[in-house]
Specification:
By secondary structure, the protein is α+β, with helices and mostly antiparallel strands. The chain is built from eight helices and 16 strands. The protein is 29% helix and 36% strand. The protein starts with a strand and ends with a helix. The strands form five sheets. A five-stranded mixed beta sheet has the order 4-5-6-8-7. It folds into three domains: 3-78; 87-161, Gcn5-related N-acetyltransferase (GNAT) (Aminopeptidase), CATH 3.40.630.30; 175-335, Alpha-Beta Complex (Nucleoside Triphosphate Pyrophosphohydrolase), CATH 3.90.79.10.
Length: 344
């Protein structure tokens, strides 16, 4: 009578990052009566055992391979997430600038996925810039919690705050900036105009040329431009004499008006027909003594400042060319600091 003992040895190996199951089998033919070992006996039974084990081995290997393939697919799905193209700033902000047409449903899905990812990344504010052609994306963006920030002629900007904290995104521009030009010639005459439109239309009031500073325009440059447009007079910037701030003046925005002194370099007036009814050189005193000017405190104060400058009673703010710490672009610092006096 023979008894066969099978001993199975299993090891795990790493091959290219994949675990491989290995096994071996050992058989012995043993005669308990005679006590002798007879290797080679019952070979048929041993072959059957080996065949059964190899079948199990192949099945186990295929199962491991399939599991690894499934795992890789899952990992790829996690790593590859479709999001909106965006740029990031130093304040954990995100800017999305969409220029091409996009289906609303696709946009909504991408927006939701993107916000989820940005939240995990610790981002805070989201700036969504939409060109005018993409107005169809405004409604789904608002449904996801975005709100209007500002609009320009070619785009609309919406914003979103990710953290559950108070929003610290800067508000839209709060002020409109304007200039009033005090152009004084060598005769002590000031350049004044009567407007053809607006609240001064038909009232016979002589006033300083005024206007709004354009985007990207310096205050000193704006004053020179406004005088040239309204009267045709060429000038050079001298200094800022004063500035006035008022609120709720233009669609609830505040207003800053800078009174700038200019030096004329031409004399002959060529008025702007579309906006200006009349233009002339007028003695400063006559301008300051107009009933309308005397009646309204802000106009009266500005007139007195101009007269004081005519008599050299104070020094205004000159434009000092400079650059900021974050940009090499030229800018101006307005100051009445007199360097030559401080160094003496």
């Amino acid at each position: 009578m023979y008894r066969f003992v099978f001993k199975k040895i299993r090891t795990n190996c790493i091959d290219g990052g994949r675990k491989i199951l290995q096994s071996s089998i050992c058989t012995t033919n043993f005669n308990p009566i005679c006590g002798d070992f007879r290797p080679g006996a019952a070979e048929g039974l041993r072959d059957k055992a080996r065949s059964a084990f190899q079948t199990r081995y192949r099945s186990s290997t295929n199962m491991v391979t399939n599991m690894e393939h499934s795992s890789k697919v899952s990992e790829n799905e996690v790593d590859h997430v479709d999001m909106l193209n965006a740029s990031y700033d130093a304040y954990e902000g995100v800017t999305v600038n969409i220029k091409n047409n996009m289906d609303e449903n696709v946009f909504t899905t991408l927006l939701q996925t993107s916000i989820s990812q940005w939240r995990q990344q610790g981002k805070k504010g989201v700036w969504l810039k939409l060109s005018l052609e993409l107005v169809n994306l405004v409604k789904p963006a608002v449904k996801e919690g975005f709100w209007y920030h500002h609009a320009e002629p070619t785009y609309l900007m919406l914003v979103y705050w990710i953290p559950e904290t108070n929003c610290t995104l800067p508000y839209n521009a709060s002020h409109r900036v304007g200039v009033a030009a005090f152009a004084l010639n060598s005769k002590g005459e000031v350049l004044v105009v009567q407007e053809k439109t607006g609240r001064f239309k038909g009232k016979g009031i002589w006033k300083l040329p005024t206007g709004v500073v354009e985007e990207g325009e310096d205050i000193c440059t704006a004053a020179i431009r406004e005088v040239k447009e309204e009267t045709g007079i060429d000038t050079e910037f001298v200094e800022v004499l004063a500035f006035r701030q008022c609120h709720k003046s233009f669609f609830s925005k505040s207003d800053l008006m800078f009174v700038c002194m200019l030096k004329p370099t031409s004399h002959d007036i060529e008025k702007q027909d579309s906006e200006i009814e009349a233009a002339q050189w007028m003695p400063v005193e006559e301008y300051a003594n107009q009933p309308f000017v005397k009646k309204h405190e802000s106009f009266d104060r500005i007139a007195k400042i101009c007269m004081g400058k005519k008599d050299d009673k104070f020094v205004g703010f000159t434009a000092l060319p400079t650059s900021t710490a974050t940009s090499a672009k030229k800018s101006y610092l307005y100051s009445n600091y007199q360097e030559h006096l401080s160094d003496s």
